[in-house]
Amino acid sequence: MTFYSDTVKARLKVNGELREVIFEPSDTLARVIREQLGLTGTKTSCENGDCGGCTVQVDDVAIKSCLMLAVEAIGKRITTIEGIQNHRLKDAFTRHNGFQCGYCTPGMIVNADAMLKKTPCPDKKQLTKHLQSNLCRCTGYEGIESALKSICKPG
Amino acid sequence: MKQTRTAIGKSVQRIDAKDKTCGTIRYTDDLSLPGMLYTAFVKSPHAHATIDRIDPSPALDHPGVLGIFTGEDFNCLIGLYLGDKPPLARKKVRHFGEPVAVVVAHTLKSARRAAKKVWVSYTPLPVVASPKEALEKNAPVIHDRLADYTHIDAILPEPGTNVANRTRIRKGDTTAGFKLSCVVIEETFSFPPGDHVFMEDRVAIVEIRSDGRVMVRSSTQSPFGVQSLMSSFFNIPAGKITVTAPPVGGGFGGKAGIGIEPIAYLLSKKMGGRPVRVCLDRTEDFICAPGAPGIEATIRLGADKKGRLTAADIELLFDSGAYADYAVNISRAAALACSGPYRIDNIKADSLCVYTNHPFATAYRGFGHIELAFVIERSLDLLAQKLSMDPLVIREKNAIQAGDTTPTQNLLDDNTGDLKGCIAKVAKRINWASGRFLRINETIVRSKGISCFWKAPAIPTNTDAGAIITFNNDGSINLATGAVEIGQGSQTGLAQITAEAFGIDTTMVHVVREIITDRAPHDWATAASRTLFMAGNAALMACEDAKLKIRQTAAQVFKCDPDDILVAKGTVSLKNSPNTGIALGSIVNGYTFKDGKSMGGPIIGTGRYITPNLTHIDPVTGKGHPALEWTIGAQAVEVEVDTSDGSFKVIQAACAMDVGTVIHPDLARSQVVGAMAMGIGFATKEAFAFDSRQRVLNGSLRDFKILRYGEQPKYHVDFLCTPQKDGPFGARGLGEHGIIGMPGALASAFSRAVGSQLTKLPITPEALWEKGSQQ
Amino acid sequence: MIPFNFDYARPDTLEQAVTLWQHCDQKGKHAVYYAGGTQIITLCREQKIKPDLVIDIKGIKECLTFREDDRLVYGAALPLNNIIDKTRVTLLSQTLGKIADHTIRNRLTLGGNIMGYLPFKEAVLAFLVLDGSAEIFGPQGCRTQSLSTLFNKRVRLEKGECIVNFSLSPETIKTKTFFVRKQKDSPVDYPILTACFAGRTKSLTMAVSGVFAFPLRDADIDSILNQTDLSCDKRALQAVDLLDPLFKSDFRASAAYRKHLLRLAILQGIKELET
After folding, report:
1. Of B251, B320, B319, whose CA–CA distance to B80 is shortest?
2. pLDDT single digits (tens) B177-220
3. Helices marked H in B618-741
């Protein structure tokens, strides 16, 4: 059995690095990532699981890190936007104007990357199902849609 | 001679693309200062109540708490145009969620925990639930000291009432105009207040250095506005205030005024100048900070039998909520444009900014024009129905053009966009001619709607922008302006303008991304869709200035007249022998001859812009010249409705807009599409829901819905190109406009679908079902 | 961000979990069983609940069971997506697939949805309409109980009990079902109506959520649905009239609209399932 009281001293595996951190059992992963690890690419816009700005991958699965305790991530592989290696995806967002203000972009890309790892060629329905988890207020989703369609095509 | 352009009109890569897609861009919320203190608000659970007592003692001994402050600690009033707002509610609260106390602590956790313990007792007061209610004879007066408030001359508050501003338009003779009418419609239209829902919550960090300098870092669209307002609120010399505006995670007008910076300053002062961070959480951003105004409007609109508009009598009541903020100018802006993009020779309009007990309103994309357009476009549809006329035809017939006059009696010149051309474009895009209503089966129908819009920036008569360019030894240019990056991509556009002026690649222009008031040239605000226009003009002037200086240096190198020098494509050469060129980089920071002798020194180009010839309006008739440049366009939509339960899908949406020269086609399209999406949300979802005591029921992203992926229609965007002669390379503003006509077009289509004219927003499935089932 | 601290335990066995709960309770402290955390973290952030101890049941293998053989068993701590992606019970994947959004469903668990604080508990609908049961572990040990008796507006547990799994009979894979869900205006939202139907002529069952303050399967309503001597319209009308006092009215929808939607859903349900 694992038990934590007061503070947790742990090593988190983030973007391929082992990072020693001290936090409280009630600290959310989002806060630890931003405030302790300094990985501010992960955005907290609602801290309520509604916007998707804080999406990270935990063992390659997209997770809203505002709704996960950091203690739960011990021993797991955390990937934030800073650790996303899918440059094709990022370039597609650039080419197709899949962003404007950029605040939702990390969450959107992390989520899309997780989707593509599992479903390399998602159809329209699958795209919608996955991307409905992230809010974007600027683009009207047109650029995001064409960015993803452009790389979901083979080649 | 047609010039070949190197940068303008090309969809170059955004300068901030890598930073944004890699998550390395830093917004205000990402900044942390050593010794920074955190805050949490205690918020009112009532929309209108007297504050009887605040007892902070249960919270004071919480570990980490440094202080708890209430309205009584800050005896001042702040406000953008009208000083009506205490930094924290004093004596009474005027809207649900109004902050009544604030905790300052070493950590956010401590602050939030303690805030929950502060004990406040209230006596509820009768609430004012709408502008109409606010104007009733015995309505509670929300600001009983209105007479004592300071305000700018351009607004006219009416003490003893809930009217914060009234703008009058009197053009022609409406009595005579209505006599010429063969059909007249009279209707009331309304919608509740809403919110911007930018993804980045508002945040400000303020510290006061030991020498008295006030350092403000804020998610603001208006660093210079914050600087000058803080200076006047707190009597600090402007030069002692430095405002830093990092890139902003969406503004849409909501960060264009002044918000939480003053309270952060006051708290820093209480804390001996230590950096204090005021950051709103999502719910606070909804209910404590200002959103979009609501409206109640009544209109009489007449037309002759050919469908030509003869007269309009309009009353616009803007729901400003508890405080005036930008709404006093929003109501004014709507008055100035009250005819919509149509020729109406006889107009009487009163546009009022009215206090209610709703969360207050500030600038919101469209700035009064969404409200106005909803009223006018719905009215045109009603008229068309009465006249049995195609809604497109009535718009074409009345489309404004050069030679017509605006409601403020300005003659429109040949810069005026081609509205008929825009109407034709959108009609073609959604195949208007093939029919406006189609029954798919027993319950499913498809229908179309059309609308037009116009908007000019509603700005002070002295709106300005500046630009400074300096050079690097590789020949690249640094461009500094006061234009904040809020997602719109203006900084990329400005780089293109600068690149074009020098005939170089856009990648050779480095734009200063973070705006800091002590080093950026003054700029009114990144708002009103005027950044590219004004900062663009300033940048062009800076380029010309720099080129002149380069030619002067080069003239000494080439031993010729400066006029014989050509600066282009990264080289400086003699006009008639372009092969003699020397690299730009070898001259811009001084030129060194072979023998070591040097001359010139760093080239610094400066440029400036200020709105020429704008005037105030006459308080009785509204006559004047308040509008800089009008952007005009048309929109059309097709929707599919399941009439059995009102559920629907927006299938396609078209927008055609006359923007003059398109600087960056992809970014321009992206702006328009984004605005259209916002317009769809605005028309069909986004509104605060209140209970009978005017408490907000949906102040979270869980409950306040905006468009999600998959709900977007197929978008069509077309640009028409009637040049704006005074704009940079002929461009005019386009950032806000895509939202303006959407509610009108959607309401038109939905009305057709359910066979009943809709007069209210948001048009939800339930609203459609309700309307449809009344038929 | 949760502005207060709590203890966190991740027991390996059900016994450990329940003992932890009891110890905490004996000290007058508040313990919660925790699975996906999507509700608990939110409520903690808002300081609406303040547990002293969070007992994460994701380390307990019984709570992570997924099997579809002689019995269809779904562990309470399974994230919804793990069930949606694998189950052969169409109604289950349909219902779970509309809860929250895809990313949230990577965390939100079956047990959390049914046992949580929110009134919707849509995940229970399939188990109600398909006569499922639940396995419960508590201070008295393990017990299995049919949801028809266990569920009354919510799952009725004794102090300290923890849900281990929900299960269905394997026949339900073949049962004909029909599902409909309506939101106010957004694809990602709580329902204003979720209705699940199962069975065939004369054996139709219905369970609904979102229309009332709690999920409901009601024997009287089921029997109205099966009065095949009446027209579909009449049955639907009778059913919603009987339920009339229960319809909820809030900013998402009026009672009248919810009633209308339920009537439509019943009509569709009968049409789809009666053969």
Report:
1. B320
2. 999 999 999 999 999 999 999 999 999 999 999 999 999 999 99
3. 665-684
CB contact under 8 A, C187 and B644: no
Q: Collect all residues of chain B within an 8 Å Cβ-Cβ radius of residue C108.
A: none
Which of B655, B709, B737 has the highest number of chain A CBs within 10 A, making it the mutation to test binding with A? B709
CB contact under 8 A, C187 and B113: no
Residue B483's nearest CA partner among B507, B513, B510, B458 is B513
The Cα of C104 is separated from the nearest Cα of chain B by a number of Å equal to 13
Considering only CB atoms, which chain A residues are within 8 Å of B715? 140, 142
Which residues of C lie inside 8 Å of B (Cβ-Cβ)?
A: 1-4, 47, 182, 184-189, 250-251, 253-254, 257, 260-261, 264
- pLDDT at site B708: 98
Question: pLDDT tens digits for B545-581?
Answer: 999 999 999 999 999 999 999 999 999 999 988 788 9
User: DSSP alpha helices (H): ranges in B223-318?
Assistant: 223-234, 261-270, 282-287
Q: Which of B298, B313, B346, B614 is nearest to B456 (CA)?
A: B614
Angle CA B22–B24–B29, to nearest 5: 130
Alpha carbons B449 and B452: distance in angstroms, whole number: 11
d(CA A21, CA B242): 35
Reading the block at residue C234, the tokens are 């009449």
Please give the structure tokens belonging to residue A64: 């809203």
| Smallest Cα distance from B72 to chain C, Å | 27
Task: Report how far apart, in Å, the C-alpha atoms of B752 and of each of B385, B446, B605, B744 are.
Answer: 11, 9, 57, 12
Q: What is the DSSP string of C262-274?
A: HHHHHHHHHHHH-
User: For residues C115 and C112, what is the distance between their CA atoms, to the nearest angstrom?
Assistant: 5
Are C183 and C193 in contact by the 8 Å Cβ rule? The answer is no
Give the max Cα distance, chain A: 51
Check CB contact under 8 Å for C251 and B708. Answer: no
Task: Name chain C contacts of A3, Cβ cutoff 8 Å.
Answer: 7-10
Residue pair B465/B523 in contact by the 8 Å Cβ criterion: yes
- Comparing alpha-carbon positions, the chain C residue that sits nearest to A111 is C103
CB atoms closer than 10 angstroms to residue B601: 12
Q: CA B551: distance to chain centroid?
A: 40
Min Cα–Cα distance to chain A from C180, Å: 17
Taking each helix axis from N to C terminus, what angle separates B369-387 and B327-336, rounded to the nearest 10 degrees? Answer: 40
ipTM of predicted complex: 0.97
Q: Confirm if C175 and C269 have CB atoms less than 8 A apart.
A: no
B109–chain C nearest CA distance, Å: 4
Cβ count near B179 (within 10 Å):
12
The number of beta carbons lying within 10 Å of the beta carbon of residue B477 is 26
Amino acid B95 reads H
Amino acid at B65: V
Structure tokens at B514: 């973070």
Nearest CB among A39, A137, A141 relative to B709 is that of: A141
